[in-house]
Design brief:
The radius of gyration is 35 Å and the shape is elongated. The protein is built from eight helices and seven strands. By secondary structure, it is α+β, with helices and mostly antiparallel strands. Helix content is 60%, strand content 13%. Helix 1 runs antiparallel to helix 2, helix 5 packs across helix 7 and helix 7 runs antiparallel to helix 8. The two termini are 24 Å apart. It has a five-stranded mixed sheet with strand order 2-4-5-7-6. Strands 1-3 form a two-stranded antiparallel sheet.
């Protein structure tokens, strides 16, 4: 809302009041002149009366404006002092302003108290996440190491080798899940500050592609990129490449062998749009509103491996940078994820 709107409204009210007041006065004088053509003394008193009423009316309007201005000025000073942690002006008079001032002070005190509690909780979460990260890293590393040692034994049965492979696979999944949860928690609690600057978007895309090329080649999936090398976007290249990777990984996972993935980049005045399109299994219309929720997995994706955290993390990363993601999909024809990164 425009902050000058109340003052403009007040001016309009005063103008309308003045017009109505003057119109009534002029109408009264006209009626006097019309029906009292003889008594000149009555004319004189009527003119003086109307002039007095007009002066009193304008004086009242000016006084009202002055009182409102003083009221707003005091309220503005109170809010300004509270914002800068200074002692607010507190009056102890029994009037409406004093009541409002006390209520405002109570509200500001409550907000500051809540901010302190939130910051305290964030610090506790930070400590907890750090502890979880540290406590799980060593056991997982040991499990993977022991699996490798068993695998390198000179004599090992086929059944034991299969068990070892399963242990290694599940350990890597657990390690990835813990790291992803830690990333999400740090983003949500503001513990990670994204470092945005002008970076070539093609470089960020290539960083994400490097992590999925091997899997794409195994399935003979063709990946094409249409992006001009001179397009730069104000973004955090590390975290944005993480968001792109999460979507690309899903595209490779849910696209049949010999499929196609197309990446298109279009830059305009407000946003740079990055489209990642595949011709995979698609997403049902009922699942589309929920795919960015934590741990959500659509009907089409339940048979494949995954925990439903990649898209949630991608959404958090892009939103944190002031952008957004749109999705269009058709069953058995493919899906397009459109990343909109703001131009700053």
């Amino acid at each position: 809302m425009n902050e000058n709107r109340p003052y403009s409204f007040l001016k309009y009210v005063n103008l309308i009041f003045s017009i109505v007041f003057i119109s009534l006065s002029v109408t009264y004088m006209g009626m006097v002149l019309l029906f009292n053509e003889v008594n000149s003394v009555f004319y004189l008193f009527s003119i003086i009366f109307v002039i007095c009423i007009i002066v009193i009316g304008f004086s009242w309007a000016r006084l009202l404006n002055f009182k409102i201005a003083v009221y707003i000025s005091k309220l503005d000073k109170t809010i300004e002092k509270a914002i800068h942690d200074q002692n607010p002006i507190i009056s102890y008079e029994e009037n409406a302003f004093s009541s409002l001032e006390h209520k405002l002070l109570r509200y500001i005190t409550s907000v500051k108290s809540n901010e302190y509690k939130i910051q305290t909780e964030k610090n506790m979460i930070n400590t907890l996440i750090s502890d979880i990260s540290h406590q799980t890293k060593t056991p997982l590393s040991n499990v993977i190491l022991y699996s490798q040692l068993i695998e390198e034994m000179p004599v090992i049965s086929d059944e034991l080798e299969q068990y070892v492979q399963n242990i290694k696979s599940q350990s890597k999944k657990l390690d990835w899940l813990i790291r992803s949860l830690i990333k999400c928690s740090r983003l949500e609690t503001g513990m990670i500050s994204l470092q945005t600057k002008n970076n070539p978007i093609l470089q960020t895309i290539n960083t994400a592609l490097a992590q999925v090329y091997a899997q794409a080649e195994t399935k003979h999936i063709d990946i094409k990129v249409d992006c001009e090398t001179n397009i730069t976007v104000h973004h955090d290249d590390k975290w944005t490449s993480e968001a792109f990777f999460n979507v690309l990984e899903n595209a490779v996972k849910y696209t049949e062998p010999d499929g196609n993935i197309q990446i298109d980049v279009v830059s305009n005045e407000m946003f740079t749009r990055v489209d990642i399109s595949d011709n995979g299994i698609g997403i049902t219309r009922g699942d589309l509103p929920h795919i960015f929720k934590r741990f959500y997995r659509g009907q089409q994706a339940r048979e494949a491996e995954g925990v439903g955290i990649g898209l949630f993390l991608a959404h958090e990363i892009i939103t944190e940078q002031g952008g957004y993601i749109k999705v269009t999909s058709e069953i058995n024809k493919g899906t397009t994820f459109s990343f909109f990164l703001p131009q700053i």
